[in-house]
Amino acid sequence: MHKIRPFEPKDPGWEAKVRASYARQGVMGFIGARLIELRPGYCEIHLPWRQVLTQQNGFFHAGIISTVVDSAAGYAGFTLMPAGSSVLSVEFKLNLLSPGDGELLIATGEVIKPGKTLVITRGEAYIVKGDKTTHCATMQQTLMTMHGKAEK
């Protein structure tokens, strides 16, 4: 996992804002993903394996991995956005490095470059199986700060 540099949030209520947004995100609740760690510029989400999250070989489905990594990196970026704004993914590139064969998916997101409107992030996905952790995906993402578009 990467060491991130310290960032100063623009919103003093950043943590409550991000946690409230995460709680409203239907898909993460639907699949059972949990927000584990949150720091300015960083987010970690865990998702335990369940059969309904798999593809035909019993591995975490690539779409599920993508969804969780997108959210981890998106919320890492949202920690640095100003009050009264919202976050929107505008593009990402995901490379799948190994099958999602394990008991737990760990997705991390970190800010590479914060900007006024565009924020560049990196996302990583790891699969835990027994005592082994495998890096299964890496992502680069661009987020847009929706100024004056506070979340509902």
- The succession of helices and strands, N to C, reads HHEEHEEEE
Rg measurement, Å? 15 Å
**What structural class do helix, strand and pairing data support?**
alpha+beta
- Neighbour order of strands in the largest sheet: 1-2-4-5-6-3
> How many strands in all?
6
Name the CATH architecture.
Answer: Roll
Number of domains: 1
Task: Explain the layout of strands and helices.
Blueprint: H1 14-24, H2 26-31, E1 34-39, E2 42-48, H3 62-78, E3 86-96, E4 104-113, E5 118-129, E6 132-146
Antiparallel strand pairs: 1-2, 2-4, 3-6, 4-5, 5-6
How would you sum up this structure, described in words?
The protein has a single domain, classed as Thiol Ester Dehydrase, Chain A (Roll). It is an alpha+beta fold. It has three helices and six strands. It has a six-stranded antiparallel β-sheet. It starts with 13 loop residues before the first helix and ends in a 6-residue tail after the last strand. The longest helix is centred in the middle third of the chain and has 17 residues, at 62-78. The relative contact order is 0.21.
Summary keywords:
152 residues; alpha+beta; Thiol Ester Dehydrase, Chain A; six-stranded antiparallel beta sheet; 40% strand
In short:
The chain is an alpha+beta fold and 152 residues long. Helix content is 22%, strand content 40%. It has one domain: Thiol Ester Dehydrase, Chain A, CATH 3.10.129.10.
